[in-house]
Amino acid sequence: MKMVPKTSVLLPSVIAIVLLLSGCMYKGEDKAVRENPYEDQLELIQKAVNAYKENNGGLLPIKTRDQETDMYIKYPIEFSKIVPAYTEKIPSNAYETGGIYQYVLMDVEENPTVKLVDLRIAERIRDLNLRKHINGKLPFKDPVGENVYEIDYEAMGFKEPLKVESPYSDALLPIVVGGDGHFYVDYSIDLNRILQEEKPDVKKGEDIRYLLSESYPILPAYSLPYTVNDKNEPVFLKK
Question: Is the pTM of this model over 0.85?
Fold first, then answer.
């Protein structure tokens, strides 16, 4: 009987394992490309926006939204106005190319600044809105602020509260429901961390979400305004 060398038997298995691992690696790399808020990509789009504004009499490459739209998602960038004329391509982490971020502008009047909105949060809120309309009732539970409530997840058919990953820390953030029936992400955990660790000079009655929007590339979208109480803790700002 002809003996088959061990290397001949092992070689196909080794190749299969290498290919499998390579596939996993590429999938991991692709996920990172789509989910990381790369600083260099933000800088490229910022330069493109600045150039477009300079060449178009101060106009900005943004989509039109209603005046009532949340300020953090009010000015999405219209990439067709700057690609390829002002920058080579749309960033790999942008929604338009399969990424998780929407590129938007903040401070459009004084200093148009490129920022990001994590659309995974928007998706979770959409899921809740669909379930709310299916059950036909607003899922109010205990109040956590003036006209802000915990969500009655059991009444909505969930086994446990739904949370979202914080774009600023390892925390899982709760979702609350306003008296208007809309769902919002509660950023109290991250705001409290900044207040305790960095001790910024904030004033009672002002919206302190700027502590997040000015310090990070990702905006605290889909949220309610916050201020501080007498203990310098974050609380929902009364409307």
Answer: no
